[in-house]
UniProtKB/TrEMBL annotation:
Cross-referenced Pfam families: DctP
GO biological processes: transmembrane transport
Name of protein: TRAP-type C4-dicarboxylate transport system, periplasmic component
Record keywords: Signal, Transport
Cellular component terms (Gene Ontology): outer membrane-bounded periplasmic space
Family label: Belongs to the bacterial solute-binding protein 7 family.
Record's signal peptide: 1-23
Transport found in the keyword field: yes
Length: 332
């Protein structure tokens, strides 16, 4: 009787091990992003994608999420995705221009006055051709693509009320030539500082301020080391989900389909969430005692017109700019 019980126990354990082995995902992807783990936009989107991927792949695929720049700066992780060292990344569209300059059409100042104009452009034939060409030339597959949040300037010296009031400010900017040129056209000095080092740089006065979305600035708690925020709306920052194209192409069709379906649903959720976040995030800055200024925007728009002349060829020429402006005009 004792031997029979031991045999049954061993059989049950063997079944349990087999079930566990069967349930383990066959495809595990590295997904990186720069925001800290927690209730912030990038991380919530990562969790949503993982949930949907596991659902649509019937448990055969999942992602291991590396938040907070664990695998390197967001700019450098793009290169790792391109080379296959990292499978996927959620990253600001503005950082892709260094790898594929025409993508910087989305970095032009005051190009998108609303979320709806950005979304319409994202679903246009123009955008589809753009990301297809990028994939062919860089090996980076652009998937989910949203209008993430408007960029504003923060600083520690004084309120920004006009371009003239920016002339004495040292601003940290992304490693993006158009964003740097925009900052300089508005009169400020631009400096490049990696995102993980920016909080201490602001705290120590290495730079006076920075340009970022409300979402990113809030997730990094910059309101703890900044006194002023100017709602300049100078760029509707795009954020996207990228993947190594070669890795994607080698996957079984059912896993490819699950990734695409999970991406599409995540994008819809993510865009809606981002729109709703703007007012709530601004209130956090006000509650922390930061002074909010709402300057007249026309002088800012006028000051950056030279950026369009300077970078027209980079982003595909005036024809590309006119095409996007045409889409925007119909979807303000």
């Amino acid at each position: 009787m004792r031997k029979l019980c031991l045999f049954c126990l061993a059989a049950l354990l063997s079944v349990a091990v087999a079930v566990t082995a069967t349930a383990a995902p066959a495809y595990r992807f590295k997904l990186a992003h720069a925001q800290p783990e927690g209730q912030n936009n990038y991380h919530l989107a990562s969790l949503k994608f993982r949930e949907l991927l596991e659902k649509y792949s019937n448990g055969q695929a999942t992602v291991i999420i590396y938040p907070g720049g664990q695998l390197g700066s967001d700019f450098n992780v793009v290169k790792k995705v391109q080379n296959g060292g990292v499978d996927m990344e959620i990253v600001a569209v503005q950082l892709l221009g260094a790898y594929y300059p025409p993508m910087d059409i989305y970095s032009m100042p005051f190009m998108f006055p609303s979320f709806s104009s950005f979304v319409a452009t994202r679903h246009s034939d123009f955008h589809k051709a753009l990301v297809s060409d990028m994939e062919k030339k860089t090996g980076i597959k652009v998937m989910a693509f949203i209008g993430f949040s408007f960029r504003h300037f923060t600083n520690n010296k004084h309120a920004i009320t006009s371009p003239a009031s920016m002339r004495d400010l040292k601003m940290r900017m992304n490693q993006n030539k158009i964003q740097i040129a925009t900052c300089e056209a508005l009169g400020a000095s631009a400096m490049a500082i990696p995102s993980p080092e920016l909080f201490s740089a602001l705290q120590q006065g290495v730079v006076d301020g920075q340009d970022a979305t409300l979402n990113f600035s809030t997730s990094q708690k910059y309101f703890e080391v900044q006194k002023y925020i100017a709602l300049t709306y100078h760029q509707l920052s795009g954020t996207c989900f990228i993947m190594n194209a070669r890795k994607f192409s080698r996957l079984p069709k059912e896993i490819q389909d699950a990734i695409v379906r999970a991406n599409n649903e995540m994008e819809t959720w993510w865009q809606d969430y981002s729109v709703k976040e703007e007012d709530r995030l601004l209130k956090q800055w006000e509650d922390k005692g930061c002074q909010v200024s709402r300057p007249e925007l026309k002088p800012f728009r006028d000051a950056v017109q030279g950026v369009y002349t300077q970078f027209a060829d980079t982003v595909g020429g005036t024809a590309a700019i006119d095409t996007v402006r045409g889409i925007v005009d119909k979807n303000r």
